[in-house]
Amino acid sequence: MDQTALRYFLEVAxxxxxxxxSERLFVAVSALSRQIAKLEEQMGTxxxxxxxxxxxxxxxxxxxxxxxxxxxxxxxxxxxxIHGLSASGRATIRIAASEGVAPDFLPQVFAHFRKTHPLxxxxxxxxxxxxxxxxxxxxxxxxxxCFSMAPEEDVQVHYAQRAPVYALMRxxxxxxxxxxxxxxxxxxxxxxxHNQGVTLRQLFDIACSLxxxxxxxxxxxxxxxxxxxxxxxxxxxxxxxxxxVRGRLKTDGLAAIALSNPELHQRTxxxxxxxxxxxxxPVIAFVDLLKQAIxxxxxxx
Length: 301
Prior knowledge:
This protein is α/β, with parallel strands linked by helices. It has helices at residues 3-15, 18-25, 29-43, 59-87, 105-116, 129-138, 199-211, 224-233, 242-245, 249-252, 281-295; strands spanning 48-51, 54-57, 91-97, 120-126, 143-148, 155-162, 165-170, 180-181, 192-194, 219-221, 238-241, 254-259, 268-274. The protein has three domains: 3-63, Arc Repressor Mutant, subunit A (Orthogonal Bundle); 88-161 and 268-299, D-Maltodextrin-Binding Protein, domain 2 (3-Layer(aba) Sandwich); 165-265, D-Maltodextrin-Binding Protein, domain 2 (3-Layer(aba) Sandwich), CATH 3.40.190. Helix content is 44%, strand content 22%. The protein has a five-stranded mixed beta sheet with strand order 4-3-5-13-6, sandwiched between helices. It has a four-stranded mixed beta sheet with strand order 8-12-7-11. A two-stranded antiparallel sheet has the order 1-2. The longest helix is centred in the N-terminal third of the chain and has 29 residues, at 59-87. This is Transcriptional regulator, LysR family.
């Protein structure tokens, strides 16, 4: 297959329209359209559904896009390994992650990894879990470390661990001595809550709906560090995953208490890569360290 046509095809698939792809590639729309038509003729089937709001991949188009992405990454891996023969193993590992693992956990793992791989470089991009997973599918990132509530297509899950939701409060809070709480126990306390769209908030809303609980948060934010800072200074309570705060409970004077509501136990922390991709050796080594660090916090704390 013509590599230029494949590159144009992938950009149209990524952007969802010929005009947007034209702007990014600096190629005329008519030239893009001809290349797509050429590929469709070669494949003997439509690769896109032409809709009023843009171009959507058909099943055949998705198969070709996945193949093309894997092929491009495989070519990149081989080139990087050849360059590595003369560059003493230098590698850039691109990671897409949920916000909950970005401030503390991942930097700890980066620092530990560089002790044994001193020429490793990291690129970290933080986003909603669905976007992190999509970045791995698209091949722009090597690894996604994110929370998930359902199986994902076209990704390989190297590791998954249950990631229940905890109530987070200052250590001197009246509820901090409890071993277990339920959401109903939090009703009389001010609540600091995440914006809608993150898995934690979705599980919270489901649990409240099933139990008929109504909360009016005093503070809503899409930045969990701000929520934690607020509860440290007040009697408010926020929700969190344990891996998000485990390294700062003692230093920040916080307590994380397990919640008994079953709905709050329905997500996992996952380490994902593109399905079918052959990973470079540094990425494989980093995935192995990630799994160890999730299981054994003291390894990197």
